[in-house]
Amino acid sequence: MAKLAPTQIEQLQSIGAYLRQVRQEQGLSIDMLANQIFIRPALLQALESGQDAALPEPVFIQGFIRRYAEALGLDGQTISKEFRVTPVNVVPTPELLEPAHSNGAVKQPELQPPPQPELRPSTGFRENASLASEERSSQRSPLPLLLGLGALAVVLGLGAWGLFGRSSVTSQANNSNLGAEPATDAPAPTADAPALSAGAGGTDTDAAGSSDPSETSDDSPSAALEAPVVVSANLSDRAWLSVVADGRNVYEGIAESGFEETWTAQTSLVFRTGNAGGVELSVNGDRAVVLGNSGVVRTLTLTPDSDLETVQSP
Fold first, then answer.
1. What is the pLDDT of residue 54?
2. Which residues touch 254 (CB under 8 Å, ≥6 apart)?
């Protein structure tokens, strides 16, 4: 609760009446201004009516006046100074004291009433009201502008992400297509083929990301089982694999233990591995069998007529 001097109360009432008049002329409500300057409506009403009992300390009242006036498009700094935070105190000075009477009694100085601070005429800040409509737009809170800039930044960021992300995916797809050349005439790999393939071709990837999903199989398991040639591999050990379906290289790389994949072809599928003991292969729906001993290189050319005997034959 504010404890204001009489002069402060007069200043508060004069300023509050003026602010209320300007607010009503602009057609603004107390609640609208309270939301804009983050001051409770009850405090703004007390400020307009000069109810010092409902207001905080004078320094806060002066801050309320400044923010209120600026929200109305007025010169808040000038108007807030019309309210004095510290009233003028009366302190006796030596000039007020008179010499003692001859009988030794000291005449008490006559204390003059405290000078009333001259209230500035409100014409100074009333003149600003004529420019309220012009200044109000420049004194508005920057919050809407900041929100608009933030939304614009988000839209630009999403657009850039979509552009560069799509370019990256397109570039990876083009590189994959350039590197996928038919390998039907390539010599059979040796026992050291996994290391050489990884170093020379740069296709040493993990089991999950070593091939392009769009090139490995059809869209659904039912469509894959309906193809003339269906080959499924399941790895129990790390192995180098190369798969060429209908003359197109659909997979090449080193797969880890636990790798599972199914490939399809219309006429033929060439399957190569550098570790036959770590690969179980199922052809055209037959049961899966191990291709051979660990570290042995095997190359199988599988057709629609291939069966379990084709896989078991060395």
1. 87
2. 194, 197, 198, 204, 205, 210, 238, 239, 240, 241
Tell me, which fold does domain 6-87+119-142 have in CATH? 434 Repressor (Amino-terminal Domain) (1.10.260)
Could you report the per-residue pLDDT of 51-70, keeping only the tens digit for each? 888 889 999 999 999 999 99
What is the pTM for the complete model shown?
Answer: 0.32
Q: Where are the domains of the chain?
A: 6-87+119-142, 193-312
